[in-house]
Amino acid sequence: MGSHQKITEYERRRDENIKRNSEMLAALKIKSKLVDLAAVSAKRERAQCKKPKIETPVVLRRSLRTRGVPPDASTAGGITDDLDKKLVSTRKSKPVPWKSPQEQGPLAMRDICTCDDESDQKLIEIISACSRKFISGEADAHPCDNLDNSENFEAFKAINRLHCSINVEALQLKSENIARVVPGRIVSLRIFPTLDMQMIAVGNKFGDIGFWNVNGKQEDGDGIFLYHPHTAPVSGFVINPFSVSKMYSSCYDGSIRLMDVEKEVFDMVYSSEYSIYSISQSTHDVKSLYFGEGIGGINMWDVRAGKSSFSCDLHEYRINTIDFNSDNEYIMATSSTDGTACIWDLRQINADKPAPLKTVTHKRAVASAYFSPSGKCLATTSADDKVSISSGANYEDTCMVYHNNQTGRWISPFRGIWGWDDSSIFIGNMKRRVDVISVEAERRVATLESDLLSAIPCLYIDGDGDEAALLFLDKHDRLLIDKAQSCFI
Asked: Residue 234: pLDDT above 50?
């Protein structure tokens, strides 16, 4: 085939059409516009393209208790825990997600004292001197100490209950008996059980513990000492009446610390991943601590052995208070946010299905349940605007007294506290007063007022000694003391 082969008529016309169309497209600049459109389209596609989401795996947090694993002994500062695995696995407590990390082991008092070193040493000297007086037998004697454990003692107690009623009109609130001990809201309070000093310990919601030496000397300054041993609200105190130099404090961060003045430390006694909402000690058994842990659980801690001797669930929700009967060492009362207050016999508690001797039912959370001084009555305070009083041989007789207990979330709940006998209950009032409820009349019979009481009082604890005193807190986070000199009638 030759290189110059003659083309057909069809091929010639096709080439002419191609040439004519190319000239027409060149005149319209179609190719350049297509290139521009393609570039814009590619830019839009790049802009709309999103990076694929990186899905993180969902981690299901399960506590040791829900897995049936006993707590690690290393997390308790070397203290072992011999809880039965079956009991541990049945606990319904849940971890507290907001709990702050806490330092394990002892904390030197001087390191966590927010005052100066001189104030720290003053507190240590005051408490140590009182403890040495007790050990040496030089402490002030209680009126009952000289009585024999015989019929004379029982007669004295009967006369005391009849004739040692308090004349509430003699109670007076003075400006010198008002102090701001800690910053923020006070959530727990305890009086040192001694007549040789009037020392009060308070805890706030930030984990601070403050001490107020009420009758301190002028050279001691304002008599207020402040420490920071915890990281969350301080839920309670226990002070050994036979050794006032040792004080236990519990906290929502799951810790219990022992303030040992002789060693000048706040030592870690117990540590848990569950909040501790209440703590108490029986006057008949100073070797054991009872504390409400997690959701409805109670733990009995052997102080000497340094481990738990019993643990079980008593309520459906947190335990707010634990109290012991002064007349029977085996009878205990608990109050709970589940709307019940229960009386228990420690000898008959079954860890699998604990059955109370008596249950007082309210419609809302029960803030407190306290035995009367004689142990014959039980008073409970609830958010359903009721104060119940149970009496009788088996506490079978229960009456409900109306009282406005709607304190709201910014004020600590009202807790009805027994007076110096079984006749009266003291409780806060939303009108910045203190109500006195008569057990016999089953109603409010008196109200304490003062111009110095500028906010709603919310918590009360009665004093002991030669002076009658009523301690309470107000909305402004102040500690106030109503005193009555020789007011026994």
From this structure: yes
In 337-458 the beta strands, taken as DSSP E runs, fall at 340-345, 358-361, 366-371, 378-382, 386-391, 397-402, 417-418, 424-429, 433-438, 443-448
Per DSSP, the three-state class of 406 is coil
Residue 146 has pLDDT above 60, yes or no: no
Per the listing, tokens 């500028």 go with 454
Assigned token pair, 297: 């659980």
| Residue written as token pair 């006993």 | 70
- Prediction pTM value: 0.71
Cα separation, 469 vs 472, whole angstroms: 10
Residues 66-123 pLDDT 10s: 666 666 544 444 333 333 333 333 344 444 444 444 567 889 999 999 887 788 899 9
Buried b (16+ CB within 10 A) or exposed e, 11-22: eeeeeeeeeeee
Residue-wise DSSP of 97-135? TTPPP---S-EEHHHHBSS-HHHHHHHHHHHHHHHHHHH
Q: What pLDDT digit, counting tens, does each position of 405-451 carry?
A: 988 877 888 999 998 889 999 998 888 888 999 999 999 998 888 88
Contact 442, 411 (CB under 8 A): no
What would the mean pLDDT of 274-302 be, rounded to a whole number?
A: 92
CA distance 298 to 310: 8
Residue 133 vs residues 136, 194, 212, 286: alpha-carbon distances, Å: 5, 11, 20, 20
Neighbours of 57 (CB within 10 A): 5
Q: What is the pLDDT of residue 362?
A: 95
Secondary structure letter of residue 413 according to DSSP:
P
Tell me which H or E stretch contains 30: helix 30-48
Residue 467: per-residue pLDDT: 46
**Locate tokens 């009420």: which residue?**
214
The amino acid that residue 303 corresponds to is: V
200 and 181 Cβ atoms separated by less than 8 Å: yes
* Angle ∠(368,412,472) on CA atoms, nearest 5: 85
Residues 370 and 379 sit within 8 Å (Cβ to Cβ): yes
Nearest Cα to Cα of residue 431 among 463, 453, 412: 453
Does residue 397 or residue 43 have the better pLDDT?
A: 397
- β 397-402/386-391 pair status: antiparallel
Short-list 283, 309, 287, 320, CA closest to 415: 320
For 104-131, b/e burial (b = at least 16 CB within 10 A) is: eebbebeebbeeeeebbebbbebbeebb
DSSP three-state, residue 400: strand
